[in-house]
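Quality-control log, excerpt.
Job 1 of 2 completed; input and output follow.
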Amino acid sequence: MPGTELTVTVSGGTVADARAVVQVLEPAFGRPQENLPASDDVTVHTARFAHDPAHGPSGSEHSVAGHLSGAVTLTVQGSPQAVATARETLTHAFTTQDQGSVSGDQEQECQLLLEP
C-alpha cells in the first residue's frame, strides 16, 4: 500500500531517547514528516513517516544500534508492512519486548518496550 504513514509515539523517555528511536528508523523510512520538540518538558513524542516500500530506502543496509537513557514505550501504527518493518528495525537496534498488537482492516498497531 504505497504512500501510507507510519506513526511512532515514544513515551517514558527524554527528547534524546525519542531522537535515538527516530534515527534508527530513518534508514528504513527516511526522515519523519515532523520534527520532534526540543524540550524535555514534553513526555510523549510523536514522529510520522511517509512509507512507500517501492521507493523508500532499505533498512537492512544501514542498521544502526540505538542508545537509550532508560526504558521507553513505543506505539507503532501504520500498514501491516510498515509496522513489520519498524518492528524488525527496532528489534535489531534495541532490546525489545513486544507488549501486544491490534490489527484492523488496513492498519496495524503494536506496542513495544525498548530497554537500554
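Job 2 of 2 completed; input and output follow.
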Amino acid sequence: MHRPGPQLSELAVQLSPPPPADQLGPVGDWTSLLPGVRGASKALGVIARGAAKQAEQKRRSLKSP
C-alpha cells in the first residue's frame, strides 16, 4: 500500500455549509446528455438538491478535530 509523503500533513480541508438546497441546481448543461428526455433539467435539479442535503447531513455528523 502506498504511504503518503510528509506533504500530506500540510493539507487542510475546511468544511462549510453549502447554500440552501432550494438554491442549488445542476451545474453546466447536463441536459444535453439526455437529448429528448422531457423533464431532464427538473430531474437533475432534484438529484443535485438531494445530494446537497445528504452532504450537509454528513458534514453535520462529522466532529471537528
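Post-run check on job 2. The longest helix spans residues 40-61.
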